[in-house]
Amino acid sequence: MSNTILSPQEKRIVDEINGKFNLYSNNRVFKILKRFETKKPIIDIERAKYFTESFKKTEGEPLVLRWSKALKYIAENITVYIDDDQLIVGRGGYEGRYGLLYPELDGDFLDSAIKELPDRVQSPFDISKEDASVVIEDIAPYWKGKTFHEDLAKSLPEETIKLTYNPENTLQSRFIVNETASFRSSIQWVHDYEKVLKIGFKGIKSLAEKKLEALDPLSPIDNTEKVPFLKAVINISEAIIIWARRHSELAREKASIEKDTARKQELIKIADICARVPENPARNFYEAVQSQWFTQMFSRIEQKTGTVISNGRMDQYLYPYYKKDIDEGRITNEKAQELLECVWVAMAQFIDLYISPTGGAFNEGYAHWEAVTIGGQTKDGLDATNELTYLFLKSKREFPLNYPDLAARIHSSSNERYLYEVSETIKEGSGFPKLINDEEVIPLLVSKGANFEEAYDYAVSGCTECRMPNRDTYTSPCAYINFAAAIEMTLYNGRMKLYGNEDIGLKTGNPRNFEIWEEFWNAYIAQQTNFLKHAFIQQHAIINIRPKHFATPLGSALHDLCMKNLKDLHEPHIEGGIDLGYFEFIGYGTVVDSLAAIKKIVYEDKKITMDELIDAVYSNFEGKEVIRQLLLNAPSYGNDDPYTDSIAKKLDREALEFTKKYSKELGVHLDLRYVPFTSHVPFGKVVSATPNGRKAWTPLADGSSASQGADINGPTAILLSNVKSKNYNYRERASRLLNIKLSPSCVKGEEGTQKLISFIRTWCDLKLWHLQFNIINRETLVNAQKEPEKYSNLLVRVAGYSAYFVDLSPDLQNDIIARTEHENL
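Now predict its structure.
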């Protein structure tokens, strides 16, 4: 690679391989990172153990009250840790990298899954023999017959089950119309951290106590619904205060025996801070950061939230504390950055453990992405960047870690310095920050019921979504739909090659007998609509069953509308809230290209017959390479080609029309989204060869990106295909994830930075939701596959998150390698 232009990340790794550069200095956070970064995560069972013990004692009580009592019991008993060198404390498990168990989710198969975790391909975990015995003998048996997954599987109609699970074993997903509610308690979320910083949990508890005193003592509703809710808020407030104080006590104990004078003083300060926050309002930047982290970390103990609770607009709610400390000389930029980076390494040690094989396949690379949102606009619509914004970007450039998942809001008036530093950070090559477009998001939020002040203040949440703290109220996970499977069912009259002669989809007729394109199109749309029908049937059941299984007293305590209505956030509807959900279109590029190839090659140009097409596809193109090349060279999505973009737009419109009509029955905005995480890989494993020339069982196209290698007209063409395939006249749409892979050479130097800024402004002007980059050489990825031990620090952008390349499965690694590497912007 001597003549190859390298990204800064690649150069660091190559220098380290050659012994020229030591990544680890004496810097505090690097020392912490070095102790755990390459270690296999370990399962800590304490959260599951104490949660189960408490639930055994509280059967028959209201769920939200039981949940709060369990969390208080955990806070009183779980082991607390303070890592060497750490300044920010609070973890939920063992030292090093650790994962937690949530038996309320996985109890029905926890005993069998625990035996498979150490050896599975996607994100393996270790567990001690003693802990495994406790899980198998004490924890799992209590939850069998009580889990949400079991309840949901029993409630679905037979035709829906066929598209969702293996009917003979509902623990096995079919990756067709895939429910995601059974491997997480909630979709992505953002708390109102500012509330904690301003009034503390003592203030939240006091508010609940006053509301409790004001209830009607004779009212049946107040006594059976409101009293348990408020008692739960009081319990959860006490729980997190107890947990923080236990850290204070531990810090004092450690300080009393610490021989290093500097570390002794650090531990004394930690003890003082943990004795004060998050019980009380934060007075300075250090207290604010510690209070925020306690709140976020306890949320992880509370429940399993999809992608983990995000951090919100940290450069906004932390800024007053930072500014005051800077102005009064109590802190330097270097110290503020060090405190933030102590949070980042704490995040990196928590691993979001998916016991479910389906969940593990969806979230490879130990994925969790608690987004930190920077930039954007203030509540009155002015540019919101400040000096803390730039500190976050500086930290991301200097500290090679995949946490936090930095998300930069961009708008038409984003200033030049901000775009410059965003671009310079992107050029580092680790995939940060991902970009979210205010010009698309804010009008959509307003169209769905938000006022402008709320919409301007949105925070990025999870992969590409956004939340308005105190206004968003929908937490039910939704379906991921494999529309490439609908293509296969259209070809084989409702069947799929993997499942043999079983009729899974609709009987739409034998396409060998279709004489015109419209017949094939109508058959496909029938299959697509059938998938949507069953996805919405799933969602109806999910919305109504979840409140019987999950509660979130901490999340509810931090939500104004929950406190106003005295209802748990997981209730189907909170008065005054906006219920924003979504379902996923998986395999968009694969489907568009397949339909375009059939229309062009079979029906218009008549280069092959439908018989020849189906025979070639069914044989996985064995001995049919000429036909495969014809299909591969048919018009493809992602090239600013009106032929394919018009088909893509029609597909999009069909899905939008369905949700526009039927989401009203669910009482939510169930919007169309194109965000696969890593599900396009396992979804591809159930789909045989497709008419775009894709081989059987290989990954589908991801998000709203082009099929792997199909985008040959450059990155701008990808943007334009996204624009021309969107139906802007519908509000029933949500985010489109867009991956773009660039060679480092095309953005080298000052000229490259300016080109990247111009590209970002173009994307912003086109009102596309999301954009993220991999800036890396293909050769680096290939070398990392061959010699993973040398490339353990190599970060790549996967979906809405970045992960260490060597932690990914070979299938996902190959998918990233296969993405088109553009040489020019």
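The chain has a mean pLDDT of 94.
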